[in-house]
Structure formats: C-alpha cells, structure tokens
Design brief:
- The complex is a heterodimer of chains A (443) and B (146).
- Chain A contains 14 helices and no strands.
- Chain A has 443 residues and is mainly alpha-helical.
- Chain A has a single domain, classed as Cytochrome c oxidase-like, subunit I domain (Cytochrome C Oxidase, Chain A), CATH 1.20.210.
- Chain A is globular, with a radius of gyration of 21 Å.
- Chain B has 146 residues and is mainly alpha-helical.
- Chain B has 2 domains: 37 residues; 91 residues, Cytochrome Bc1 Complex, Chain D, domain 2, CATH 1.10.760.
- Helices cover 52% and strands 3% of the residues of chain B.
- Chain B has 4 helices and 2 strands.
- A two-stranded antiparallel ribbon of chain B has the order 1-2.
- Classes of the chains: A mainly alpha (443), B mainly alpha (146).
- Chains A and B meet through α1, α2, α6, α7 and α8 of A and α1, α2, β1 and β2 of B.
C-alpha cells in the first residue's frame, strides 16, 4: 500500500465477506426446501430466501468492486482519495440500505422483479450512494497525476454500471416491456460493464503479480473489453427469445451470444500467457491462484456453460429451468466472486503489512471452494437436464418432476458444504490478517 | 502487430456500432412488435392491478413467468389453459399454504377482487405471442406399436 486512504478498501472487503456468509446460509435454506425440508416456511418462505440470496450476491460483489476501486484508483492515479470521511459514510449507508432491504424481504416489502427486488424508495438511496462513490473515484482520478488505461477501464465500468441501474427503475404496465428493460440492467451488467470492472481489476493484478509491461497488458485489456461489448450488447437478445418480442432477436441474440465465450476465452488466454511471460514471480501465490482461477473459471462457467443453452433451439427447452441455475452459479462465482477474492488476497498483505503468502489455509480455501462450486454446478446441471427431459419433452407434471430430482439436491448440499468450508477457511484467514495499519505504507 | 491505439479503436468502434444497432433493434421491437404481440389493447385496469399484486408479493421468487423467475414452483405463463380458473381461485384464496406433493406455497389469502385481478393478469400473459414458448411436450412412445 502506498497511500493511507487505500485502507478504506479493507472495510468494503470485510462487508463483502459478511454478506457472502449470509448469502450462503440462505442458499442452504433453499437447497433444503428443494429436498422437501421446508421447516422455516412460516418465517423464511422460499421467495424470501431467494430474494435475499440473489440480492446479497449483488451487494457483496458490488462492495468488493468498490473496495477494489478504492484500493486501485489511488495507486494508479498516484493521489490519495479525495474525501475519505465521505467514503466511510458511503460504506455505512451501503451496509444500511442492504440490511434494511433484506429485513424488508422477510415482511413482504419488495418489488418482485428477479435481481431487482429492492423496493423503489430504497432504489433512490442506492442511486445517491453510488453517485457518492463515483464522485470520490472520478475526482481522485481527475486530481491524480496519471490516468492509466487500467484505471479508466475500471472507472468506465463503474460509471456505466450506475447508469444502467436506471432503466430498472421505470414502471411498465406491460410485463414484456418490464422484462425487456430489466435485462438492460441485469444482462448489460453481468455480460457487459461488470466484465469491464473485472477486466480492469484483472489487468491491475497481472501488472502487479507478473511484472509484464503495462503497455502490453493494457493493449490486450482493450481487445478483451472490445470483444465483451461487441458480443455482449447484442447478446442481450438471448433474453428476448420468448418474452413477447419479435423473431429478429432469435437470430441476433443467437449469433452474438454464441460469440460471448470469446471474450472470456481471451481473458483466460491473456491471464495465463501473461503469467508465463512474466519474469517477476510475486511471492503472493494465493493471489496468483485466484487471479488465474477467475480467468479460467469464468471461461468455463460464464462462457462455455452459457453457450450450452444460449442457442434458441436449446433455450426453448431450458428457459426457466434449473439449467439456468447451473450456469448462473459457476458464472457468478468464476467471473465475479473469484475476482473479488483475487483482489482481496492480493491487497490484504499490503494493507495489513503481514506477509502470509502461500499459507496452507489459503490454498485449502481456494481448492475446497472451487471443487465444491464445480460439484454444485454438476448437481444443478443433472437436475436441470432431467427436468428438461421429463417436464418439457415427456410432459410430466412440474411437481412430479421435482419429486424425481430431489436426490440431486442432496448432492448439491454436500458440495455446498465443501464450498462453504472453503469460504470458511478464507474468512478465517481474512480475520487472521487483522486490520490495516499505517505502518504498512511503503513508498 | 496490433498497437495499443488500434486496440482502443477496436474497443470504442465496436462498442459504439453494436450499441447503435442494439438501440435501433430495441426501438423497432418496442414500438412495432410489443403492442401487437402482447395485445396491448387488452391491458385493462384489472390486468395492471394483477401485475402489481404479482410484483408486490414476489411471485417470481418461486414461480417463473415468460420463463423468468425462480425454479421452485411451476411455470405460470399458460396456467389458465393448464389448470382453469376454478383451480386458480382455490389456490389464490387459500388461507393455509397450498401444498401439492407437500411443497408449500405462501398462503396469500387474496380477497375476491384480488383473485380476479390476478386471473385477468394470467389470461393476458397467456395470450402473448412467445415464439412458441413454452414448448409442447412431444415424446411419443414407439414401444409395442408394431
């Protein structure tokens, strides 16, 4: 760490870890409900657990992104963050909005729109919060000595992410219109601007860890984010096949979303080749594992498993089944969960001054969580494919099919336990590092 | 070999072009296709009230509609056609959790007006032209036919 204000990142990461823990607990509640054990139905019905699970995901990842930005921007711009006090207010208000929303979900206070369940009044607070965050980042960048490509791509991703939240706040009487614009937020986030944020963080990590020349890394960063947008923007069409818009989207969405894996493939090849090219071997092996891990797992989870059901002929049968949950879990984990873990693993030793590189706990965390998540993905996949054949091809009743596939949720819960154990080790390590200290500042 | 400024041009150019095409296609869809395919003229006050109920109770947290939502409870796009209004009235007005095969639905205990609004909403949803979704099961056993 070079600047005192970078310490702020730590608290965003801590909030991230806390929310992730809660997200996993609610995930287990749902897995058990799928097996037929819904003892909590009275207090936490499935729709509550589901809204909490997905919203916590979004908030912990955003909190991780914000922490990443508060760490990366001062270092790249060579300038302290402009208003640290305001940033702490922003942190606390983010946590408060999140907590109020999640409590509200237990009392039927929500907007039942997948991923965007936060009620409208709280949406406005989210907007104020994000604007404050962006204000601090952009002003720091403006006042800083340097504006590097990495920091610009990261900031651009954050600004667009904020702008794209707005279409989700418009009320439509027509469900088709509602769905159409909901995807402007959800799809253009996860298959568009979030990849910019991911790319920016990844480039920063590769510059630091491999020691490859910045110019080379940033050149390929442009190529990757270029591929992301060229495929991802029109790839939105894969959400428009069967919601009440025309057939043009079957062709446009089919072709461009089939190209989406290219961006992730480029990201994986980029990370691996920079690592092999790099002469400097950074001692932080754990951060390196997560950095290469996120590039490769996102290609498998977001790229390949997305491709598996993105063609209209396939999606006709898989749309609205557990196949989507299969893709969703490995995609979010690989692309966004792991990049947050990578930046945390890289920054913690720098923030706290303790060089716990290469610890057994850290490696266990990496392997257990990843193998666990892969197992969960397979369990969802088997359940989803069985559901597609029994329900959509054979015409069995929904409930009968759910009975048939209950067993796969036992497998899911076992793998999820493994995943959770890995996360437990990671958080244990996080706590062991202790809080950031001024003595860790190096010039 | 590719230079950094060429890479930047590729990124900016590609983004702008695809985004303009995307906006154009979206505009055509929303102004020309959606009103016809969704029968916007049938969007009555009841249908809209039904949509409000659908959202304010987070039905999407268990069910899917137009294939979107959660995978804990049945797809509801064609529910009127599949179950009929009588069955739907019973489920929606139930005071105890409706639990076919022991999987519980939240007991929403909707009043008569709300039940009708939801049914109107589902009727309207069921009439949208969805390019053939949900697919009709097409499995036919060929065993013992010969």
């Amino acid at each position: 760490m070079k600047y005192n204000s970078q310490k702020l990142a730590y608290w965003f990461f801590a909030l991230s870890m806390l929310l992730l823990t809660l997200q996993i607990i609610y995930g287990f509640i749902m897995a058990f409900a799928h097996m037929g054990f819904d003892g909590l139905h009275e207090f936490i019905a499935f729709n509550t657990a589901r809204a909490v699970h997905t919203n916590l995901l979004v908030v912990w990842i955003l909190s991780g992104f914000m922490g990443a930005a508060y760490y990366i921007i001062p270092e790249e711009a060579e300038h302290e963050l402009v208003n640290v006090k305001l940033a702490y207010v922003q942190l606390i208000s983010l946590a408060l909005v999140g907590v109020v929303a999640i409590i509200g979900y237990h009392f039927n206070y929500w907007e039942g729109r997948k991923f965007l369940e936060i009620p409208r009044p709280l949406d406005y607070l989210v907007v104020v919060n994000v604007l404050t965050f962006l204000g601090i980042i952009v002003t720091t960048l403006y006042k800083g000595k340097k504006r590097t490509t990495t920091s610009l791509v990261l900031t651009m991703g954050l600004v667009f992410a904020a702008l794209l939240y707005l279409p989700g706040m418009i009320w439509f009487d027509n469900q088709t219109m509602d769905s159409f614009f909901r995807w402007w937020v959800v799809h253009l986030w996860v298959e568009g601007v979030w990849e910019l944020i991911m790319g920016g963080i990844l480039a920063f990590l590769l510059i630091k860890i491999t020691g490859v020349d910045r110019e080379v890394i940033e050149k390929w960063l442009y190529v990757i984010v270029g591929l992301t947008f060229i495929s991802g923007i029109l790839g939105t069409g894969h959400h428009y096949y069967y919601i009440g818009v025309g057939k043009t989207w079957l062709i446009v969405g089919g072709i461009f979303s089939a190209l989406e894996p290219l961006a992730f493939l480029a990201m994986a090849l980029f990370a691996v080749s920079m690592y092999r090219k790099g002469e400097k071997k950074h001692p932080n092996k754990i951060a390196l594992s997560w950095t290469l891990g996120t590039a490769i797992t996102s290609f498998v989870g977001a790229g390949l498993l997305g491709l598996a059901h993105t063609l209209p002929q396939v999606n006709m049968y898989t749309h609205g089944t557990l196949v989507t949950a299969m893709h969703g879990h490995l995609a979010f984990w690989g692309a966004y969960g792991m990049i947050v873990f990578a930046i945390i693993s890289y920054t913690l030793p720098n923030l706290t001054g303790r060089k716990l590189y290469d610890s057994t706990t850290g490696l266990l965390a990496f392997w257990l969580s990843n193998i666990g998540m892969l197992g969960m993905t397979v369990a969802f996949g088997v359940a989803g494919v069985a559901q597609v054949y029994l329900e959509r091809k054979m015409g069995m009743d929904f409930g009968d099919v759910q009975k048939e596939i209950e067993v796969h949720f036992f497998v899911l819960a076992i793998c999820a336990t493994m995943f959770a154990t890995g996360i437990g080790f990671y958080i244990y390590e996080f706590i062991k590092y202790g809080q950031p200290s001024k003595e860790a500042i190096q010039n | 070999m590719l230079s950094k400024s060429q890479a930047r041009t590729f990124f900016l150019g590609g983004t702008i072009i695809t985004f303009v095409v995307f906006l154009g296609l979206s505009w055509t869809s929303l102004t020309k296709e959606v009103p016809k395919r969704t029968h916007e003229e049938n969007l009555t006050a009841d249908v809209i009230a039904g949509k409000h109920l659908w959202e304010s109770n987070n039905c999407m947290g268990c069910h899917t509609i137009l294939g979107e939502g959660a995978y804990y409870a049945p797809e509801l796009t064609k529910v009127v056609e599949r179950r009929g209004e009588g069955y739907m009235r019973a489920v929606l007005s139930s005071k105890v959790p409706w639990a076919p095969r022991s999987r519980k639905m939240v007991a929403h205990n909707f009043n008569e007006v709300e039940v009708e609004q939801l049914i109107e909403f589902f009727k309207w949803i069921g009439n949208i032209d969805l390019n053939g979704f949900p697919p009709k099961p097409d499995y036919k056993s060929t065993n013992n036919l010969k």
